[in-house]
Amino acid sequence: xxxxxxxxGTSLWTSIDRNYLWQLAFFNPAWKLGRHYQISVSxxxxxxxxxxxxxxxxxxxxxxxxxxxxxxxxxxxxxxxMRVKFNANTYNEDxxxxxxxxxxxxxxxxxxxxxxxxxxxxCVKDQLSPPTQVARPDPKPAKxxxxxxxxxxxxxxxxxxTTSTGTGVIVTNAGHILTNYHVVEDCKSIVYSKEGExxxxxxxLRSDKTNDLAVLKSETSLSSSDVASFRITPPVKAGEQIAVxxxxxxxxxxxxxNVVSGNxxxxxxxxxxxxxxxxxxxxxxxxxxxxxxDLSGNIVGIVTARIDDFVVxxxxxxxxxxxxxxxxxxxxxxxxxxxxxxxxxxxxxSERTLASVVDAAKKFTVLIECxxx
Length: 373
Hints:
Layout: E1 2-5, E2 11-16, E3 22-27, E4 37-45, E5 48-57, E6 61-66, H1 70-78, E7 81-90, E8 102-109, H2 113-127, E9 139-141, E10 163-170, E11 176-179, H3 181-184, E12 189-193, E13 200-208, E14 213-218, E15 229-231, E16 241-246, E17 258-266, E18 276-279, E19 291-293, E20 299-307, H4 309-316, E21 324-328, H5 329-338, E22 344-346, H6 354-364, E23 365-371
Parallel strand pairs: 15-22
Antiparallel strand pairs: 1-2, 2-3, 3-6, 4-5, 4-7, 5-6, 7-8, 9-20, 10-11, 10-23, 11-14, 12-13, 12-23, 13-14, 16-17, 16-19, 17-18, 18-21, 19-20, 20-21
Helix pairs in contact: 2-5
């Protein structure tokens, strides 16, 4: 739990429990809310309204539980001003409503809430013991395929490719690029390029092997029009149409970038891992680190893996069709929040044509080359 005091005399408390359900609580020593009060809370964050039924404690505390409301969490993370109105109806002993309701109205500036939620979640994670691992088919990173074995027999140990490729997303005009950890793992040097442009050097700034994420830093600054935007609201729904843009199978397919479309098949990955979306859009080696886009052109995920067809075929006797995964944008933005990397965010309101989404993606999507020799 964390708290902040405001000049109104009201304290704002934020807490997350072991099930990652979170609460907002408001405390004011001047309040006198008895056990016969029923409290409703109206919250507006930057003009977006939310309503809740609240509970009280000790007559000076009002708290609301917000289970699985990703839209509310995103509003709280990225909002600037939160206006809260409490309406308290007084009940008599016989259950009738008193004629004298109480109302409080407050405004809270939201500074640092994005980093706060990351820290609270990490605190919970650190306190919980690791979950028991269940044997299941592992997703296969959508990285470059290795060269086939030579047909002739050889006693020489097969060497790993010295160069591999992936995809990245430009997130700041200062030159920060988001991609997968496995795209840049063990790289001696990294270069990136946009369609039709010369390559530029970059280096790893921060990485997260657990969530397969990395932020690179370019040696050059970039135009503000070349920066991606991450979706905040509304929450992504199963069945929603999405697009994947990137540079798969470099050397075989076009270097001008490749787009495929599909749908969000599930709001969780293998083993109900809620960090991931399962998507039907085909993913190939080289798509890793690329954007999963909604039809407003905003990023809702980062392509990270495809299921291992042969493992599944061996286990089930059938080849899977279009079972691919993207890590949710909330995980990626939390990673960037933790390391102080700024990024753009917006709400997805109007849909665009797929061609228009691709035109936008071309500006902020780059081909990444990792050299390991």
